[in-house]
Design brief:
276 residues, Multidrug efflux transporter AcrB transmembrane fold, two-stranded antiparallel sheet, 4% strand
Length: 276
């Protein structure tokens, strides 16, 4: 066990000199009677990086995202430049560097996943344009995710210890957004294939689109609801809760928009072709 005095009793020479200690005869005497305190300069290490002297500044964030704090400090330095010969580098070390690296890699992974999905759709549909229409559902997930996190912070982010406790869009949230791509694209693909199948059977394009919404509505909503319910327990995890919230918000918004926007866009692009 390690016992440490309160800070106010060990932060000055007067306070230190009054700390009671037991002498050889068992009596308690002030520590100042055993000697004197002398201030001695301590050598500080000189750090180098790329053969240049550097000074590392550390700090813990409370109530703000690291990116927000970094951008704020960058703006202040732009308004009040450092003296000649000095410069500040924010992406060199620490959590900010990790944040940049993680979101960069996640963005590349997301792009690679979307390219793979597009390639598979081109092979399946023998068209370069129709897969783009089907993948229209992917950006619709952002309409649900970003406002969803804003609403989550508005309702559930209670302060802790006098500091704000926001719910951030983290790297795990990015994973959830990537996972949403396959789910929402499948919904769009099912709608388009149903419409094409009905048109081949002689149903008018407008009627086929209305039938697709009516018949496929329940399966699509049930799929979204079961996925959201499956992700709900993960919201209790402190690390992967962002993934679950991204799935839940993105699913509800993209599903509702997919049922409307994708058929409407398909009708607007194909009505002249089928009319001819």
């Amino acid at each position: 066990m390690k016992i440490i005095l309160p800070r106010d009793k060990r932060s000055g020479i007067v306070s230190l000199s009054q700390i009671p200690v037991k002498a050889q005869d068992g009596k308690m005497i002030p520590l100042g009677e055993l000697g004197t305190f002398v201030k001695v300069a301590e050598d500080q290490p000189i750090y180098h990086k790329n053969l240049k002297r550097v000074v590392y500044v550390f700090g813990d964030m409370a109530g703000r995202a690291p990116a927000e704090a970094i951008l704020d400090m960058q703006k202040r330095i732009d308004d009040q430049p450092l003296p000649d010969g000095l410069r500040a580098e924010w992406a060199g070390e620490g959590e900010w560097k990790i944040t940049l690296r993680v979101f960069r890699d996640m963005g590349i992974s997301n792009l690679a996943a979307l390219m793979g999905i597009y390639t598979l759709l081109v092979i399946q549909m023998n068209s370069f344009f129709m897969p783009l229409l089907i993948m229209l559902a992917v950006p619709l997930t952002l309409i649900g995710i970003m406002p969803g996190f804003w609403l989550l912070n508005l309702l559930l982010a209670d302060p802790v210890g006098g500091f704000d406790n926001p719910i951030f869009f983290t790297a795990t949230s990015m994973i959830g957004m990537i996972a949403l791509g396959g789910i929402v694209i499948r919904n769009s693909l099912v709608l388009i294939e149903f419409i094409n199948g009905a048109v081949k059977e002689g149903v008018a394009l407008r009627e086929a689109i209305l039938q697709s919404g009516a018949i496929r509505l329940r399966p699509i909503l049930l799929t979204a609801a079961t996925t959201a319910l499956g992700a709900w327990p993960i919201t209790l995890d402190p690390i992967f809760s962002g993934l679950a919230w991204a799935l839940i918000f993105g699913l509800f918004a993209s599903t509702l928009f997919t049922l409307v926007i994708v058929p409407v866009a398909f009708y607007a692009l194909q009505k002249n072709r089928y009319a001819a």
